[in-house]
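pasting for ref
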Amino acid sequence: TVPTVRRTYTADTLATDRVTHLGDVQLEGRLFLWQDRPGVPRLLVGAQLGLRLPTAPEVTASGAPLPLDAQPGLGAWSPSVGLWAGAYRLPWMLFVSARYVHTGTGYGDFNPGDSGLATALAQYQIGAVEGLALRLSADARYTGADRLQGERDGDRAGWVLLVGPGLAWAPRTDWLLSATARLPAHDGRAAGAEGPMVELGITCDL
C-alpha cells in the first residue's frame, strides 16, 4: 500500500500548515491456516504479517520540521502480526481481523505507543451490476502511551472507533477497486481527535 496523505494542522497561533505527500509504504501478507472444506470454502482462517516502512520524508517549513501531527509519515519502522477470518456465502461476505502493531522511534525522537486493532467488514454483492458490492466496516483501535524524547505522554492513549460505508468493484479476475469512508464514532483519548477519512484502494492477487 502506498497512501497519499493530506494533512491540515492549525497551531495555537492559528497559523495553518497543509501537507500533501506520499505516506509511509505499508507491506502486508496473509497466510491461509485453515478452511472448512476443499474446493470452494465458506470459511477461511489465517494469519497476517505487516511492515510499515519509513519512506515518507520529514517535511519542513522555513528550515524547521513541521509538527508531528502535520507530517505525512512517522519516520519509523512498524511491524505488525495478527489473525483474520472470512465467511463467504453469496451474496454476503464477512471479514474480521485483529492485529498487534509495534512502532519504533521516528521523527523528532517520537515513539508512538504500541496498538491493538480490530476490524469487521460486511459486504453485499449487488446482483444488477457484475463485480460491484456494498460495504460496511467498523475499526476499533487501542493505543498505549506515546514517548516524546524519552518522556511518557498518555494524552493520546485510549480507544478510537471508526465506522463507515464503502463500495468495491472487481473489473476483472484478481483485481479489486475500493472506496471506503471512515467516520469517528467514539474517541476516548484526551488529545488528538480523529477526523473523517476516505480510503481509496487497488488490490491485485498475485
